[in-house]
Amino acid sequence: MRMKEAQFELIKQQLRKLTSIPGGFYQKKFEGIDIEAIQSQEDFERLPFSWKGDLREAYPLGLQAVPDSEIVRIHSSSGTTGTPVIIPYTRRDIEDWAIMFKRCYETAGLTPLDRVQITPGYGLWTAGIGFQTGAELLGCMVIPMGPGNTDKQLRMMQDLKATVLCATSSYALLLAEEIAKRGITDQIHLKKGIIGSERWGEKMRKRIAAELGVQLYDIYGLTEVYGPGIGMSCDYECGMHYWNDYIYCEIVDPKTGEIVPDGEIGELVITTLRKEGAPLIRYRTHDLTRFLSGDCPCGLSYPRIDTLIGRTDDMIKVKGVNIFPSQIDELLGTVEGASSEYQVMIDHLGGRDILTLFVETNPGVDKGELERGIKFRFKEKIGISIACKPVEIGDLPRSEKKSTRIFDNRY
């Protein structure tokens, strides 16, 4: 993907500013590099990457690139896997984020007449408040529920006639199942679902869309780069448009760091073009995707990346074979009778690895036949023998946030 002249000029401005901050994160990161010698996209692509480890080392406010007087808000990653990443925002950062989020809603066809029920979390996490400010900027009625309390969620959804649900795919599925269980489908007015925060398979997408009776849209983002709202799928479900006047994207080989040809899968790398509080240069997201070429049928001129297939740090190695959750999603999507929900347990017993795949099954399915079919396809498509345990729909746990699907008990 070629860099536009306007993007290059914004990047040069960022580089000059960031390397002039005494003791600043990027002044140290780019020590010994002549910023003025960067005169082309190829020069820029020789700059070192930044990654989450850098950001953790900068805890709490080492990334801050403006005076304290200009910081109006703090957000943070969950910190569940180590030191949290703290991201400071200026007033302009907040406004820019809302503008991008408004574009996401407009891409999904929302208008000020929509009523948007927001179930992702509020607080230090970026999700809830990001969904809210974008909807308010568009002029929608916002129902800021946050996660949990499913009884109240469904009551508000019915009484306030919400037309749009914002949720993780896991919680959207939980709500869809509860609506069906309670027999209140005819009292639900949802038309669209905007789903983010976790990767989800095609089978799960179809279940949620069918059970809620909605059109679904993927929204993309990460705490380090504003939050959700930097990319969005459209009605045609052919990848996600990203706002290239605010972020510059590259896709690199996860092992070598070299740029991959357009259309090939690699790791998404993001540079912020306008961010003030905590700009990022060549930030490795760990998300795996590819650029999609050609014009989108929706008419938007913004470029597209494909729906995420997984993360570089999601990969598990069993019996010498690298396995991504997306491969399991794809495999189960071809198995008639298998539902969308599964869990993987990996153990090391008797000197060898054992992978057990628990799969929820549709009503009336012959579980023995399904088990044999899944084991055969797993060996054929992924390359290892597994144990398979078909279970009833609802037997596997549901989550109000993100679902954990893989449990590695070997370590």
From TrEMBL:
<dbReference type="Pfam" id="PF14535">
    <property type="entry name" value="AMP-binding_C_2"/>
</dbReference>
<comment type="subunit">
    <text>Monomer.</text>
</comment>
<dbReference type="InterPro" id="IPR028154">
    <property type="entry name" value="AMP-dep_Lig_C"/>
</dbReference>
<keyword id="KW-0597">Phosphoprotein</keyword>
<dbReference type="Pfam" id="PF00501">
    <property type="entry name" value="AMP-binding"/>
</dbReference>
<keyword id="KW-0596">Phosphopantetheine</keyword>
<keyword id="KW-0547">Nucleotide-binding</keyword>
<comment type="pathway">
    <text>Aromatic compound metabolism; phenylacetate degradation.</text>
</comment>
<dbReference type="InterPro" id="IPR051414">
    <property type="entry name" value="Adenylate-forming_Reductase"/>
</dbReference>
<dbReference type="GO" id="GO:0000166">
    <property type="term" value="F:nucleotide binding"/>
</dbReference>
<keyword id="KW-0436">Ligase</keyword>
<feature type="domain" description="AMP-dependent ligase C-terminal">
    <location>
        <begin position="320"/>
        <end position="410"/>
    </location>
</feature>
<dbReference type="GO" id="GO:0010124">
    <property type="term" value="P:phenylacetate catabolic process"/>
</dbReference>
<dbReference type="InterPro" id="IPR045851">
    <property type="entry name" value="AMP-bd_C_sf"/>
</dbReference>
<protein>
    <recommendedName>
        <fullName>Phenylacetate-coenzyme A ligase</fullName>
        <ecNumber>6.2.1.30</ecNumber>
    </recommendedName>
</protein>
<comment type="similarity">
    <text>Belongs to the phenylacetyl-CoA ligase family.</text>
</comment>
<dbReference type="GO" id="GO:0047475">
    <property type="term" value="F:phenylacetate-CoA ligase activity"/>
</dbReference>
<dbReference type="InterPro" id="IPR042099">
    <property type="entry name" value="ANL_N_sf"/>
</dbReference>
<dbReference type="InterPro" id="IPR011880">
    <property type="entry name" value="PA_CoA_ligase"/>
</dbReference>
<feature type="domain" description="AMP-dependent synthetase/ligase">
    <location>
        <begin position="67"/>
        <end position="271"/>
    </location>
</feature>
<dbReference type="InterPro" id="IPR000873">
    <property type="entry name" value="AMP-dep_synth/lig_dom"/>
</dbReference>
